[in-house]
Amino acid sequence: MTPKSAFHSLPATTAKPIYKCGTYLHTMDKKGLISVPVATAVGLGAIIGAGIFVLSGTAIALAGTDAIIAFLIVGFVAIMVALEFGELGSIIPKEEGASYSYVYNAFGSELGFITGIIFYFSSVTAISAISLGFGSYLANLIGISSSYSTFLAIPLIFVLAVLNYMGIKKAANADSVLVLIKLAVLFIFILFALYFAFGAGHFTLANFGTDSTQSGLGPIAAASIAIFFAYSGFQTISTLTSKIQGGANAAAKSILLSVVLSLIVYLAVVISLILLVPSSAFTVSAADPILKALDFASAPYSLKLLIDIGALIATASASLAMLLRSSRIIYQLGSDGLLPKVISKHAPKNDLSINGLIVTVVIAVITLFSGNIYVIAAISVFGVLFTYLMSSFALIHFRRIKRLGSFKSPLYPYLPIVAIIFLLAFISGMPSLSLVIGIIMIISLLSIYYILMEYDEKKTVKIRLFK
Known about the structure:
This protein has helices spanning 36-47, 50-63, 67-91, 99-107, 109-142, 149-165, 168-199, 217-230, 235-238, 247-276, 289-296, 301-335, 341-344, 354-367, 373-400, 414-428, 432-455, and strands spanning 346-347, 352-353. The protein has 17 helices and two strands. It has a two-stranded antiparallel sheet with strand order 1-2.
């Protein structure tokens, strides 16, 4: 391979924005498209699973009853970002990289490369974190120690990879069925909590008490980091915009619906958890808080079995949605010439990059052994917050140059400005380890980008920021 052919000509940083669709044409006919309900289910599949079945207990352990406030704050920010993504998706409807594609088209290949790789690794670490939750619930179901969670998570990733290999529509339809099942299970859990508290007379305000370590802005911020991990799922819909019946407007509707519905479910489940268990009894490291709550309330075995099965379905559904998203990101990165052809080679029959799927599975499995679920989730959240932040700037850029889509987010420019302020606040409040890893990733990717530019003999464009 000659320097000129590396990464099929890596685009150089340009002074002007790059507006380019992916090199692969979308030949899927109407029969291959997915409906708005199915697209919404894919978003719910990615959102409802990690947050409720895995990290809701972590949020309560960090902020006590104030976790409810954290869920409301993060839900509010997620709705703002969802509106932004609805507009961005209508501006660039044919590309499948979600926030990466928005940044790439707005600011060029340099920032696009950094955003895309960070977004990809954020999605892959999300697969690992959610799969660990699956392993924890499965360990409880078969009666073995939760220390085996990691090894139980590995087969899940391989099974979901096979389902992903079968094609987008089959994977999305499977996800919609799983979503209906887990929503039904959560509804049963909420009814039990209400009966336990008010029907059986076990309600006590003491459960809603918050100790000194759980009160204040610091704990709320820490809980928000864990919660934001849960809301990252709706970007999955953005990667499927060109595959949704009705195009960008339908995708925007699906994104907003998935976020609003998940917020309602989240609040109901968190309140139900605290009705069953004092907020001070939750722990940060527990990956199965709903089962722990049912054990505390001496719930019947049949209900715990149902919740356990529902949790397995929920975490499997969320992992599937994240795997689907990861494969679309790596496909789009490759089609834009920012990854080698061997990784992003497209298989039309399956409508995905098979080699990219293999790389994703390998990285996800390795990440399982990197630490506890909160650390993995926090690393993923850094990537989510960073990509949301860059996407907010991309929206401002497109509005400034009057590149408009069929869907327009309301309250411009206040909405993206407020979103940027909140996102910067969340990033500044992240655990130091996550910030360090995030900064190292940005510096490393910047170095890699310019090394590749030098290898590909690209010239750097010089611009004057000030006259």
